[in-house]
UniProtKB/TrEMBL annotation:
CDD domains xref list: PBP2_PotD_PotF_like (cd13590)
Signal peptide: none
Source organism, top-level taxon: Bacteria
Pfam family, one: SBP_bac_8
InterPro entries, per database record: SBP, Sperm_putr-bd, TAT_signal, TAT_signal_bac_arc
Stated name of the protein: Extracellular solute-binding protein
SUPFAM superfamilies: Periplasmic binding protein-like II
Keywords on record: Membrane, Periplasm, Signal, Transmembrane, Transmembrane helix, Transport
PROSITE patterns, alphabetized: TAT (PS51318)
Keyword Protein biosynthesis on entry: no
Transmembrane segments: 12-31
């Protein structure tokens, strides 16, 4: 998959300067003392990645403390990076489509592929789009998942969720929600419109996506952040949610909530999370060791079962271990070797990688999303 090629440092800084206004910039981690540098690993990440179920064994093994600044959404991440002093972070957990932006801005280091277990990965993930530039590695994929239709199984019949058209069902007026981020939502509408490359569309098809989603606006009961998405689905305020997947419903299922995510006939989107080592990191060796830790089979099992939100994993050895230690979760996430599984959905073309807009700017998509929300 190719993203826009005009990712110069100037473009990056212009984009992040605009986005920073909507970023939650308060509480950025303070600069560390020299004595703390080799005893701390500071991560910029989605919520959950520095909790004890993930980092506890790493902290004990290396005698260090993992700290994190959490964000929601790639635009927020870009804003935080652009506003933080050099050396603030050691590791950046990035949605895959933003790696090229970070690289173009000079915010991440080149990596040595020999340091990481790519031979353990399924072939589709060994040279993942956007993680390499001119044959050089800049990011290591650690987990992924699919976005489709998330719904309450007691309030929405399964027969209705075979298509994204369910979001327009009259019986669901005021009961449809959006996870408040333009890329997943607009990407799903682009799929519904029949675009095989949902983010690589010309201006005519982009206009059609805008017109289509505007007809959905009367159905919408709210735009939700990370926590609001959980609570609105759990308490029945929202019956079906656009822009999310099992990373939300999988957590709710653990607490007995009657929710589920399906990939409809138009297909689904793949979100992908990857680690980059930050430029000017105070603890680059420790950062490398953490990537090695989380991509080893044991680390892959941890991230598949992460308490904050579960995920699929790219490591075949990780799959094998997950099936040994928690076969129920392997079955639930459809990561069972020897039968049809999530890799077949990718190989059959049912899943498209989430990307940055190719023929429009990220700013243009973001501006339209703001217009849509206020309509």
């Amino acid at each position: 998959m190719n993203n826009r090629i005009d990712l110069s440092r100037r473009t990056f800084l212009k984009t992040t300067g605009i986005l920073a206004g909507s970023a939650v910039l308060a509480g950025v981690l303070p600069l560390r003392s020299f004595a703390a540098m080799e005893k701390e690993l500071v991560i910029l990440a989605w919520a959950g990645h520095a909790e004890q179920d993930i980092v506890g064994d790493f902290e004990r093994q290396f005698g260090v403390k993992v700290k994190a600044k959490y964000y929601t959404g790639g635009d927020n991440m870009l804003g935080l990076i652009s506003q933080s002093p050099p050396g603030t972070f050691d590791l950046i957990l990035s949605d895959a489509e933003y790696v090229q932006q970070l690289n173009a801005g000079g915010y991440i280091e080149r990596l040595d592929p020999a340091d990481y277990p790519f031979d353990d990965f399924f072939p589709e993930f060994q040279k993942f789009p956007g993680h390499w530039l001119d044959g050089e590695l800049y990011s290591v994929l650690i987990r992924f998942g699919f976005l489709g239709i998330a719904y309450n199984t007691q309030l929405v019949p399964e027969a209705k969720v075979h298509s994204y058209d369910v979001f327009w069902d009259e019986s669901l007026k005021g009961k449809i929600g959006h996870f408040d981020w333009h890329l997943p939502n607009l990407g799903q509408i682009s799929l519904l419109n029949g675009n095989s490359r949902p983010y690589d569309i010309d201006d005519a098809h982009w206009k059609a996506v805008q017109e289509k989603i505007m007809t959905l606006r009367p159905q919408i009961g709210g735009f939700f952040d990370y926590g609001g998405t959980f609570s609105s689905l759990k308490n029945g305020q929202i019956h079906a949610m656009c822009g999310i997947g099992d990373w939300i419903t999988g957590v709710l299922q653990r607490s007995g909530a009657p929710v589920k995510t399906v990939v409809p006939e138009e297909g689904g989107l793949q979100w992908t999370e990857s680690y980059c080592i930050a430029k000017n990191a105070h603890s680059p060796e420790l950062a490398k060791k953490f990537i090695q830790y989380i991509t080893a089979p044991e680390g892959q099992v941890k991230t598949a079962k992460m308490a904050a939100y579960p995920a699929l994993i790219p490591s075949k050895k990780g799959w094998e271990l997950l099936n040994k230690v928690d076969s129920a979760e392997a079955q639930r996430q459809n990561m069972v070797i020897g039968q049809r599984n999530v890799m077949d959905d990718i190989r059959d073309g049912r899943i498209k990688y989430r990307e940055l807009p190719v023929q429009q700017s990220l700013e243009e998509w973001n501006d339209f999303w703001s217009e849509y929300k206020s309509a």
